[in-house]
Amino acid sequence: MGLQLMDPFEFLIGPDFICPLEYLFLLRLTHRKKVFLARSIIDGDTDRMGKRGRACVVVLGDLGRSPRMQYHALSLARQASLQVDIVAYGGSIPHEAVLKHPSIHIHTMAQPRFIQLLPKILYPVTLLLKAFIQFTMLLWFLFVKVPAPDIFLVQNPPSVPTLIAVKWASSWRRAAFVVDWHNFGYTLLALSLGRNNVFVSLYRWFEKHYGKMATGSLCVTKAMQHELEQNWGVSARVLYDQPPEFFRPALLEERHELFCRVKKDLCHPIGVYDIISRGLENQEPSETLFTTKRNDEISLKQNRPALVVSSTSWTPDENFGILLEAAVMYDRRVAARSEGSDTAEISEERQHLYPNLLFIITGKGPEKEMYEEKIKRLNLKHVAFRTMWLSAEDYPLLLGSADLGVCLHTSSSGLDLPMKVVDMFGCGLPVCSVSYSCIQELVKDGQNGLLFSSSSELADQLLILFKGFPGNCDALLSLKAGAMETGSSGRWATEWEDCAKPLITQAKSISSLCLYLTHIFFCWIISHKMSDQYRSCLKMWNDERENSKLVCLGVLHNLLCRIKFC
Known about the structure:
The chain has 21 helices and 15 strands. It has three domains: 1-46 and 490-566, no CATH class; 49-241, Glycogen Phosphorylase B (Rossmann fold), CATH 3.40.50.2000; 252-488, Rossmann fold (3-Layer(aba) Sandwich). α17 (419-426) links the parallel β13 (404-407) and β14 (431-434). The protein is an alpha/beta fold. The two termini are 25 Å apart. It has a seven-stranded parallel β-sheet with strand order 3-2-1-4-5-6-7. Residues 80-237 form the Glycosyltransferase subfamily 4-like N-terminal domain. It comes from Brassica napus. It is a single-pass membrane protein. Residues 353-462 form the Glycosyl transferase family domain. It is found in: Endoplasmic reticulum membrane.
């Protein structure tokens, strides 16, 4: 049985008689899609509706510094067999697996850098201007440049203008809309403006209002899931961060090659000539600070420094000052032990009871230069610092070569977990982490890491863990075994398959069903509800009487008002 779609515009004398938005709405639904809809409904081919085989991942930030969204893109391409478009800012280079995957297409937006040059006194105006420019760029990419997807997957935060733009795009392009809640954007804004600021309240309203409109939601902790459900009206699935397969303990050969590559970075201290610079003097080409190569055999040096890694965004929610204070305390205590003896023999024994420490700090952020200036003034004897930015391929190798990780993340909301710790566990690296409300979901104190609340606690933990390093540090080895167990218990691909893929599939199905029902409803209105009045209009119009024409226009306007909200 065929279905005839009637065109309501053939008998209008022009669009001047109706609202332009009403005209465009009806024009889009009738002229552009009527043949497709009729054939799909007649043939029963609902698979053609809303199943385009594409996903769009939206990151209003540096893609290279958004590993979770990179992993989402890889899983959508590998495990869901979708073509994936990523809309994000440029900057850091993403992982090679993302760049080389044939089904992943990166669309880079230009950052409005000129806004940073505006004076701080205009900060409220700067926020509005930045949001407007970002919103305009997102609309261009999501409405025009990127092919229509089945699903939009967006990172939150930032919430404004991301959630608004993606919601509009998903409605216009009839796609599902899934939010991956990493944190709450309004809490990050409150760090600089204060909780009671009107912009923070407005930001929270937008975040909550548009977050509730999502087809589906993912989040990173059970604590965040509870907050979303109880206070936001959002039902979310917990997708814990898990390390991908390339986060693993590094082989000896990989360690040696890595330290050879970064030898120049290690030679240049942040401040004055330090303990690490002296250790690199007169080294052979086949030798590094940590390894040596003899007759094609690589081994770890027994007198090597302990390598401690911390990855930071150099932002206010990570108090890097705690680590500096702990380093000073460790340095003074080790110096006091090594210098407080009567004989050189005893002094040497005590000196090697605790190793020298090399802290390698990775990451980029606004407070980096400030802390580098502080490091220059420390004048440490047994501790050294290096700041680096490593490639996406070298960063896992660094974690897999380190002896201990330190996490300073405290969370602006207290509800998210640091992904850097997940990566460290994937490499079998134990972690000392700042303690806050939900960190116990990840770091089990005394099993795979230790929790601290002050710089003195962290200094004590460094002394406990590195006593007798490298051969007789039982406490460190015990935590390392726990970290290995945690890292090997789950991987990203498995977690995504169990938690995210069902939600993505469900969201796509809901989107397709809603589109299908909308099409049927619209066609039913056109073929049944409008037909009688439509034909009446045509008859009256053909009568060529002035009063009949006025009545006809009134009836048509009534019809348009009734269907414009469909």
